[in-house]
Hints:
WalR-like; four-stranded antiparallel beta sheet; Response regulator transcription factor; single chain; alpha/beta; five-stranded parallel beta sheet; phosphoprotein
Amino acid sequence: MRVLVVEDEQLLADAVATGLRREAMAVDVVYDGAAALERIGVNDYDVVVLDRDLPVVHGDDVCRKIVELGMPTRVLMLTASGDVSDRVEGLEIGADDYLPKPFAFSELIARVRALGRRTSMPLPPVLERAGIKLDPNRREVFREGREVQLAPKEFAVLEVLMRSEGAVVSAEQLLEKAWDENTDPFTNVVRVTVMTLRRKLGEPPVIVTVPGSGYRI
């Protein structure tokens, strides 16, 4: 899942991004509304965690632009105000969910994951394919009943492949969904991660390389 965090309190923004990355999400961070609009115009995000009171361009206008563009991106709006009227107004603008500050980080993660599931075709909470069971919420992976310990990026790549339901996923798509914008697009990190993932999942191999196209399970 790829997430954009838009928050002008830089310490909070960076803390949220770090926490989401630990949950195997690819996260970009910006600190004002204008930068958010720029990123949205370049990258495809599953979820935008959007502070409402932003400098340069207000969070409401960022949300309106996402709705206007007809993007599948889901918006989780944050605000320091707990007034019901503010929450209602945010939802009417086009936000998909609303979370007042301060918030429990576990709740933020749960809401981001729930919104991420709504950006694509409905899938069961536990993904199963080729003898593999992947639980995104618990961050658990089992193959034929054996638990497999994965690093966050390995988990993220496996989740993208599982969600594709047998379709081929290109290295570029994996890079977009599992890494943030600071990753060198010419790096071999995808190939190395897939190799490590294959080894950890064991024999027989379940990740198939499709020459010139990408990978599939």
